[in-house]
Design a protein that fits this description.
It is built from eight helices and seven strands, in the order βαβαβαβαβαβαααβ. The chain has about 250 residues and is an alpha/beta fold.
Length: about 250
């Protein structure tokens, strides 16, 4: 007797992906579309039209939406409009920013902006969209954590605090909502070849040092993270909740 294959498809589902303009967010949007989901692409000032067009080229419905996630009032209004028009089954809280400075000279404004975008908006979107998911008794929320959800890092105190907080938020929401059919998980990318790491990869000393510590021996690609997001969003991951899935080539295990 042949065992049934795991179900990784998302036909009939709609996903909302923040930070979908490029890099990991774009890869997530396209991967979710490739597995059958319609995708709402969120970007600051709606600058995600190209990604939305790529989703449509895969035969799925898409819409470019957005607001500055640091503006929680504007974000609340935009989410309200979206939920009036769409049932959101999958939320990927991918958007994030980083500000680099020693802790002692980090402006309070930078601290607040990073926490607002990386943590406050993730909580806001999860609770607003989560209410609809709870009413439907089905939903998948996937937060974008980081290696700095586990480590302290250097010169990025606000970013580190936000990513530690996001890992904790993931577990807290999972505990409340799993019994209602809504799973909440996170993906923690390692060193990825994206625009955000371009300066590191262009520095031969830093690049070699980082790559030398990765057991696989190479930088990851956005598609590596997107594959983990698709798994967590799919019916195959129905018994996974409250987990932070590290996609780092073995970095943390070193």
């Amino acid at each position: 007797m042949t065992a049934p294959a795991p179900d990784f498809t998302l036909h009939g589902r709609t996903a909302l992906v923040t930070g979908a303009r490029s890099g990991i967010g774009r890869a997530c949007a396209l991967a979710l579309a490739a597995t059958g989901a319609d995708v709402l692409c969120w970007g600051r000032a709606g600058d995600v039209g190209d990604t939305a067009d790529e989703v449509k080229a895969l035969g799925r419905q898409s819409r470019a939406v957005g607001a500055d996630l640091a503006d929680l009032e504007a974000t609340t209004r935009e989410v309200g409009r979206l939920l009036d028009d769409h049932r959101v089954d999958v939320l990927v809280n991918n958007a994030g920013i980083i500000r680099r400075a020693p802790a002692g000279s980090t402006p309070l404004g930078d601290w607040r902006e990073v926490l607002a975008v990386n943590l406050d908006s993730a909580f806001l979107l999860a609770t607003l969209v989560g209410r609809q998911m709870l009413a439907n008794q089905w939903g998948r929320i996937i937060n974008m954590a980081s290696l700095l959800s586990f480590q302290g890092g250097i010169l990025v105190p606000a970013y580190t605090a936000s990513k530690h907080g996001l890992a904790g938020l993931t577990k807290a929401l999972a505990n409340e909502w799993a019994a209602e059919g809504v799973t909440v998980n996170a993906v923690a990318p390692g060193y990825m070849a994206t625009d955000n790491t371009a300066s590191l990869r262009a520095d031969p000393v830093r690049e070699a040092s980082i790559r030398g510590r990765i057991p696989t021996g190479y930088w990851g690609e956005p598609e590596d993270v997107a594959a983990a997001v698709v798994f967590l969003a799919s019916p195959a991951a129905r018994y996974v909740s409250g987990h932070v899935l590290v996609v780092d080539g073995g970095w943390l295990a070193r």
